[in-house]
């Protein structure tokens, strides 16, 4: 068993961050880790920020991840990736969708959507994997499967067999969406 890790899953309400955290948490428990999961909902029903902390290891006392402690940040939206980047460890990895969803201040015209976010993220020097996961999710059959595409990408970073991921995915998603999610996972894993 390798050392435990701290993973943040960030996005916007309705993107499937909670399903992703359930799949990941269930998988890690089955792998024998002590796992703590904490979900922070902003105005998630109105497209607000959603953050989930997933910590696992031999013994985990608290689910909270402080700035500079995340081994991985799985970001479902580009602005959320930029917003939570300070939580990434120096040697951590950001896996982010390049999808842009306008937050309420942008929708109301109170402020513009920040420009050049991809370039700004890359300029920090972090290990950033900025990916068009939305098009892969659509290729799998639904844009709502972007969360599982991102899990597929994350799975390549972790020392857990693909079959284990798929088994947990099958037990977690509704039966009518299993094949779509398996395809989305495979597309993400192939990146």
CATH architecture, by name, is 3-Layer(aba) Sandwich
Number of strands: 6
Q: Can you tell me the CATH superfamily?
A: Pyruvate-ferredoxin oxidoreductase, PFOR, domain III
Tell me the domain tally: 1
Tell me the helix content.
25-40%
Sheet with the most strands, sense and barrel status: 6 strands, mixed
Number of helices: 8
SSE class: alpha/beta
List low-pLDDT spans.
Answer: none
Radius of gyration: 16 Å
Side-by-side strand order of the widest sheet: 2-3-1-4-5-6
| CATH domain fold name | Pyruvate-ferredoxin Oxidoreductase, domain 3
What sequence of helices (H) and strands (E) makes up the elements?
EHEEEHEHHEHHHH
CA distance, first residue to last residue: 26 Å
Shape: globular
Oligomer: single chain
Q: CATH class, please? A: Alpha Beta
Descriptive account of the structure:
This protein has 191 residues and is α/β, with parallel strands linked by helices. It has one domain: Pyruvate-ferredoxin Oxidoreductase, domain 3, CATH 3.40.920. The chain is built from eight helices and six strands; from the N terminus they run βαβββαβααβαααα. A six-stranded mixed beta sheet has the order 2-3-1-4-5-6, with helices on both faces. Helix 6 packs across helix 8. The longest helix has 14 residues. It is globular, with a radius of gyration of 16 Å. The two termini are 26 Å apart. The mean pLDDT is 92.
């Amino acid at each position: 068993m390798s050392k435990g890790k701290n993973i943040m899953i960030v996005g916007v309400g309705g993107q499937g961050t909670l399903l992703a955290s359930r799949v990941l948490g269930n998988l890690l428990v089955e792998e024998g880790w002590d796992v703590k999961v904490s979900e922070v909902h902003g105005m998630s029903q109105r497209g607000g920020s959603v953050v989930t902390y997933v910590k696992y290891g031999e013994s985990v006392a608290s689910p909270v991840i402080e700035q500079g402690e995340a081994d991985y940040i799985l970001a479902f939206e580009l602005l959320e990736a930029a917003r939570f980047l300070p939580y990434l460890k120096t040697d951590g990895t950001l896996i982010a969708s390049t999808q842009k969803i306008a937050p309420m201040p942008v929708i109301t015209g109170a402020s513009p959507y920040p420009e050049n976010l991809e370039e700004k993220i890359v300029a920090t020097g972090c290990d950033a994997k900025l990916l068009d996961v939305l098009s892969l999710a659509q290729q799998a059959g639904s844009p709502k499967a972007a969360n599982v595409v991102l899990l597929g990408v994350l799975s390549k970073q972790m020392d857990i067999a693909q079959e284990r991921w798929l088994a947990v995915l099958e037990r977690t998603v509704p039966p009518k969406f299993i094949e779509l999610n398996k395809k989305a996972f495979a597309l993400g894993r192939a990146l």
